[in-house]
Amino acid sequence: MKIFTANQIYKADKFTIEKQQIPSDALMERAATQLFEWIHSRLQGAEVTIQLFCGIGNNGGDGIALARHLKEADYNIQVHVVNYSEKRSKDFLLNLERLKDRKIWPEFLNDDCVMPEISPNDIIVDAIFGIGLNRAPSEWVGKLIEHINASQAFVLSVDIPSGLPSDRMPWNTDHVIRASYVLSFQVPKLVFFLPETGVYQNQWELLDIGLDAEFLVKEEVDYEFMTQFDVQPIYRPRLKFSHKGTYGHAVIVGGGYGKIGAVQMAANACLSIGAGLATTFVPECGYHSLQTALPEAMVLTDAEDDYISEIKIPFKPNAIGIGMGMGTKEETVQAFGKFLKEVDLPLVIDADGLNILSQNPKLLNEIPKLSILTPHPKELERLIGEWKNDFDKLDKAKTFATKHDIVLVIKGAHTITFYGGKGYVNSTGNPGMATAGSGDVLTGMITGLVAMGYDSLPATVLGVYLHGLAGDIGASLVSYDALKATGIIENIGKAYLELFKRPEPQEGKGA
Ligand SMILES: NC(=O)C1=CN([C@@H]2O[C@H](COP(=O)(O)OP(=O)(O)OC[C@H]3O[C@@H](n4cnc5c(N)ncnc54)[C@H](OP(=O)(O)O)[C@@H]3O)[C@@H](O)[C@H]2O)[C@H](O)CC1
Ligand SMILES: [K+]
């Protein structure tokens, strides 16, 4: 599912209005009808007070049109116009007239207004600013937003929480609506997915306002939200007349004294996702535990007992995952550097593999093209340097991935995979997956998919999605808190089944 910028949404509006030959207020009417149906199907005429706070642009127009629908269904409404500018939009004014025709007179709030009383039992509709916000709200509007946030009422935001710009950080973090729920039109907004801006909404859902399908298909975007619908076509079914060789031989290189478990989990995940064969390469000390804990895998050992000193793989694997639990001892750094120079297939590099790269930036030039790097936030910072905010982080990550021709995975609540100047935002996963070994499992899964013949980008996008989905299934069985990395592995099979079962998710959780 494409993520459009505000400009692209305006373009889509224009295209739709011209192609469908509809007046511009028809889109606002569709938006208001969708909003009304969503609310009405849940409230069923309940006697709750609905307070609508409407700006003077088209976001406000949506709110005003919604007020008319609510009134017609006999809801108890109070309409406030947040009068922050004289430049009212045409469709706002049209809908204001329609409201007045029905004898509803909104209260106009200006910079000297008394804050309206809000009971915690009221429902607030937030239609102050939409994607047209382009500068800091003035002080009194900011205070009104703070007042709404302090009310403890349920806040339903129209399109985007007011005060949150769609493509940059807010000017003042207190002057952004904290939405209980956002009903967003047609396409998700990038800010829903970033740690610093995703906290302004608890949950979001899309409403289809019939923007033109041709435009939606053709328009090129910088970011895509990878739903079940987007990920399904990546999957390649196993063939009837196939054998284990068809699904590749993966090698997992890593481990050190006390850190063999990381390799074991990665190799287990690699086999669980469907690799034909898996071999681990570990220091000698890992031999017995690996052979016992994971009988399906083969084990190669380093000459050293408790660290890696030379990586020797006596066959040509289809994929190599490297770095987990490996440490950054000088001999290991040398071995890793030598290996990078020798190897001629893309690698999946994680954990200490990434740390070695950050400590020895010259090695960055030795990374085989199309390798996949899977840093968590700290590892990412060591690789690409500090960032000012989430948008700066995305820019730096994109530049880094393009410069080195690699797939870069930014792990987080919504993991984002960068390749070829584009970002793929994952839709699965949960806070229970912030647990020891979760990253080793992801590395193993992606390595397995590469071994099976998936190219680097599809392997990563599918691996990240299935990893999150397996985590969601695991958490649904044991709670977020009790989920362990091995619980993710155990549910990879169910994630595959779910990939073809669940309806496409159209909602997401924020904070
Ligand atoms: N395709 C769709 O998704 C549709 C969405 N709709 C809704 O329309 C809004 C966007 O409406 P728009 O009128 O473009 O913008 P806003 O309502 O967000 O803002 C109105 C104007 O306010 C000015 N502005 C911006 N920032 C500030 C500020 N800090 N203080 C005061 N004024 C501000 C700005 O105008 P300027 O000329 O003064 O810069 C804005 O234009 C979208 O979010 C949806 O809710 C349509 O209803 C249907 C199609
Ligand atoms: K809004």
From TrEMBL:
Ranges of residues in domain YjeF C-terminal: 227-499
PROSITE patterns for the chain: YJEF_C_2, YJEF_C_3, YJEF_N
Catalytic activity: (6R)-NADHX = (6S)-NADHX; (6S)-NADHX + ADP = AMP + phosphate + NADH + H(+); (6R)-NADPHX = (6S)-NADPHX; (6S)-NADPHX + ADP = AMP + phosphate + NADPH + H(+)
Claim: Membrane is one of the keywords in the record: no
Keyword tRNA-binding listed: no
Cofactor(s) needed for function: K(+); Mg(2+)
Domain of life of the native organism: Bacteria
Residue numbers binding AMP: 411-415, 439
Signal peptide: none
Residues annotated for K(+) binding in this entry: 59, 126, 162
Coiled-coil residues: none
Keywords of the record: ATP-binding, Isomerase, Lyase, Metal-binding, Multifunctional enzyme, NAD, NADP, Nucleotide-binding, Potassium
EC number: 4.2.1.136, 5.1.99.6
Pfam families: Carb_kinase (PF01256), YjeF_N (PF03853)
CDD domains in UniProt: YXKO-related
Record: residues binding (6S)-NADPHX: 58-62, 130-136, 159, 262, 325, 376, 440
Residue ranges constituting the YjeF N-terminal domain according to the UniProt record: 9-217
Comment on bound cofactor: Binds 1 potassium ion per subunit.
Summary of the function given for this chain in its UniProt record: Catalyzes the epimerization of the S- and R-forms of NAD(P)HX, a damaged form of NAD(P)H that is a result of enzymatic or heat-dependent hydration. This is a prerequisite for the S-specific NAD(P)H-hydrate dehydratase to allow the repair of both epimers of NAD(P)HX.
Assembly behavior: Homotetramer.
Family: Belongs to the NnrD/CARKD family. In the N-terminal section; belongs to the NnrE/AIBP family.
Protein name: Bifunctional NAD(P)H-hydrate repair enzyme
Encoding gene per record: nnrE
